């Protein structure tokens, strides 16, 4: 969570995800800006996007389903989910 001096971002709290010292782009998420130069998203936009993604998941399939992902970089995700039509 961070606050910014940038006037266009100062009105809302922002969130940015960093993994292994690298900023994770949040632009693929529905509630986040497509042109976020620094990978930031409003907290409200991020939370709403996460709620939508979570509501669409089939938790039983994720935990117990028989699925495999293609080798290499043929399968990539921006939101951490795998959809049934993307598996082998």
Compact summary:
By secondary structure, this protein is α+β, with helices and mostly antiparallel strands. 23% of the residues lie in helices and 11% in strands. The chain is built from 2 helices and 4 strands, in the order E-E-E-E-H-H.
Structure overview:
By secondary structure, this protein is α+β, with helices and mostly antiparallel strands. It has one domain (14-86). The protein has two helices and four strands, in the order ββββαα. It has helices at 43-56, 59-64, and strands at 14-15, 17-19, 22-24, 41-42. The strands form two sheets. A two-stranded antiparallel ribbon has the order 1-4. Strands 2-3 form a two-stranded antiparallel ribbon. The longest helix has 14 residues, at 43-56. The mean pLDDT is 76.
How is this fold's topology laid out?
Blueprint: E1 14-15, E2 17-19, E3 22-24, E4 41-42, H1 43-56, H2 59-64
Q: Give unreliable regions as ranges.
A: none
The radius of gyration over CA amounts to: 16 Å
Count of folded domains: 1
Total count of strands: 4
The rounded distance between the terminal residues' Cα atoms is 37 Å
Biggest sheet, in brief? 2 strands, antiparallel
DSSP helical segment count: 2
């Amino acid at each position: 969570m961070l606050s910014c001096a940038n006037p266009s971002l100062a009105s809302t709290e922002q969130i940015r995800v960093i993994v292994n010292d690298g900023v994770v782009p949040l632009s693929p998420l529905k509630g986040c800006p497509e042109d976020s130069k620094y990978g930031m998203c409003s907290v409200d936009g991020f939370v709403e996007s996460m709620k939508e993604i979570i509501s669409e998941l089939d938790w039983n399939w994720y935990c117990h389903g028989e699925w495999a992902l293609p080798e290499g970089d043929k399968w990539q995700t921006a939101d951490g989910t795998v959809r049934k039509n993307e598996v082998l």
